[in-house]
Amino acid sequence: MSVLQVAALLLAAVLATATALTREPLRQAMLSSFYGLVLGILFFVFQAPDVALSQTAVGAVALPLMILLALAKVRGGGE
Amino acid sequence: MTPRVRRRVFLVFGAGLFALLVWSFGGLPDFGHYVGPYGDLVNGLTIPERHSTDAVTTVNFDVRAFDTLGEDAILFAAVVGVAVLLRTLRDERERPRPDDEASERRIENTSSAVRLLGLGLVGPTIVLGLYIVAHGQLTPGGGFQGGVILATALLLVFLSDQYITLRRVGPMALIEAAEGLGVAAFAVIGLAGLIWGSSYLENVLGLGVTGTLLSAGTIPLNSVAAGIAVTGGFAFMLSEFLEQTLVVRRS
Prior knowledge:
The complex is a heterodimer.
Chain A: H1 3-21, H2 25-45, H3 49-77
Helix pairs in contact in A: 1-2, 2-3
Chain B: H1 3-25, H2 37-50, H3 55-63, H4 65-85, E1 92-94, H5 98-101, H6 112-134, H7 143-159, H8 163-169, H9 172-196, H10 218-246, E2 248-250
Antiparallel strand pairs in B: 1-2
Helix pairs in contact in B: 3-4, 3-10, 4-9, 4-10, 6-7, 7-10, 9-10
């Protein structure tokens, strides 16, 4: 296992824990976006570029965005 | 059940789960030592038998194209579900907040830097998405990945504060139709296999020269169909969420 792979694994573990431990939904959405990005990098350094592309687009952009928009609606976008 | 008892029960079962995990990980093949036959088989046949240089796309749009059609249908069902959930209810109506349309707003405007960056990135994002959809059989990526990237162009428009404008001038009906059209195109391309080959979704087109844009038979066609479906699906879901946030109000 290369240094890059170990670093990516560690970073993913740290961000996953941070995402799970965060209680504030807005911060959690932002953290989950970073976590999605790191997972994308992880897949890339483990030589799975196809999965990395899907993971980055869905995990780092689409999913956190939908959480953000739902939060915006709940917090007074819909009065 | 008091929190203390609950914690004890968790610790007992958590320790058991951890032990089982450690035990089962011990039986996995070593890191970097692939044992299964399928990966080697697929790697061996993509170039000679399919003239495609990306094994993953070959698997997705040829070897197990029928499964991908099923996944397309799942996405379709999910998008329809979102559309039903986020429809405008009887006691709601569409009314952009006056703030969003007035030139002088109470809430702070998006900064010019963000707006410029967002709008500036729309073009490159669309080009990158189209590239990844079109080069599915050659390089990593394909219809799904490219489609999601294309749909994020809509997000950049929203970031640059232009969503209400886009809604007025944009092809929203086209976005709504794209998802269904993409899935239908995939299913119809599969019929070619029944007519000219022996099974549904069989790769019956000429395979072309390996490494060129129009190679690998029906793989790029399926990839483009999936790209249209995914772009439409994700863009439609995003626009439904944006409508709910920006436009729909309780009357």
